[in-house]
Structures are given as structure tokens and as C-alpha cells.
Amino acid sequence: MQVRWLKQSADASGIIVIFGGWAIGSGVLSHLEGDQDLLFVDDYRTLDSDLPDLSAYSQRTAVAWSFGVAAFAHWLAGRPDIFNRKVAITGSLSPVDRRLGIPPVVFERTVQGLTEESYQGFLALCFGETQPRQDIDVDARRAELEAVRDRGSAPDTQFDRIWISRNDRIFPAVNLTRGWEAQADRVLTVDAPHVPFPLWHHWKEVLGVS
């Protein structure tokens, strides 16, 4: 588990802690505007890292995307919930599940077939179009996938806003709709691929606040 600052200022009253997706990084968020400080978490081979002391912030928001949804919920279990608002984006508390997440057959195909070339195809599925070539540490990212699978479903966690993408080719929208049925009143569906961030220009849009 890696924790790093994307933005840290001397006078921000709010912070957004982002639990990112697998093998994508924080670049997909770089265009989003807002006054909050930003702390980014990824690499879910382990979930034993603590966050810095965030008690000075009056508004603390957690944004969990893709595999970050289950990772955040696992990480939060047994820790004090310091967050005023929580948002889940195109992810599931049951990340590897035939009905609620990524079907196990598809997941195992990704794990066993992971190469630098297959990763380029994965990126195209995530963004809905071919992406510039990116490098990947195959062994590390395969180990991360195996850890996500072996960790299993996360404890039930309540979110204030849940985003589902209709054109998601990683987490099928029908599975996410089932997975979030108990919190259906917080779900919004958008016409986007697995990476929906280009839809938004400001963090307020992501968080669903005015």
C-alpha cells in the first residue's frame, strides 16, 4: 500500500483521500479543480499502512475508485471512521464475484495472461479507447491482483454517493447495480467507460456537493 500527497497546502480546510484503481495511477485526476488537499493511495498488495494525521482538516472525504472501493472498505474496518463523506466510483465491495463484481473467470484470465501487451489492452478497455503505451511491473501488479482476489469481499460500508458507468467493460454495470442495491438511493449512473473522470472538471462534481 502506497500513500503519497498529490497536493498539500498550508491553509486548506478540506482533504480528499483517494483510493485509486489498479495499475492506472493518479494522472486521471490531474485535471480536476478544487481547493482541497489531495492524498493518493494505491498498490493493494497489503493494506497495513496508516494515513498521515488528518485531524487538522475540518472536511475529510474519501473517494474510492475501482479496486480501491474494496481496498478502502477493508482498510477502514477496525479503524476509526474519520471521513465526513465517502464516494465510490465504478467499483464493488465484492471485486471478484460472478454477480457483484468482475466474474472470476474473466479475472483469472487477466491474472494468468498479464503481460506488457495485455496491459495495453486493459487500458483501452478502461478508457474506452486506445491509450498511449505505458510500462507495467508485471510481477508486482500480478501479485496485487492475487491479493485483491484472496482478500475477498469487503465489509459492508456506507457511501454517500456511488457512481456506476453504463459502458464499464471492467466491472459490468449490471453487476454493480446488484452490488449496490442496498444503497440504491445513493447511486448515479453515467454514460462513461470504467474511467469516468473526463466527465468532470471540478471535485465538487465528483463528490456530488454544491
Structure description:
The chain has 210 residues and is α/β, with parallel strands linked by helices. 27% of the residues lie in helices and 19% in strands. It contains 6 helices and 7 strands; from the N terminus they run ββββαβαααβαβα. It has helices spanning 67-76, 104-112, 116-127, 138-151, 173-179, 203-207; strands at residues 2-7, 14-19, 37-42, 59-65, 85-89, 161-165, 187-190. It has a 7-stranded mixed sheet with strand order 1-3-2-4-5-6-7. Strand 4 (59-65), helix 1 (67-76) and strand 5 (85-89) form a beta-alpha-beta unit. The radius of gyration is 16 Å and the shape is globular. The relative contact order is 0.18.
Can you give me a brief rundown of this structure?
The chain has 6 helices and 7 strands; from the N terminus they run ββββαβαααβαβα. The chain is an alpha/beta fold and 210 residues long.
Present the secondary structure layout.
Elements: E1 2-7, E2 14-19, E3 37-42, E4 59-65, H1 67-76, E5 85-89, H2 104-112, H3 116-127, H4 138-151, E6 161-165, H5 173-179, E7 187-190, H6 203-207
Parallel strand pairs: 2-3, 2-4, 4-5, 5-6, 6-7
Antiparallel strand pairs: 1-3
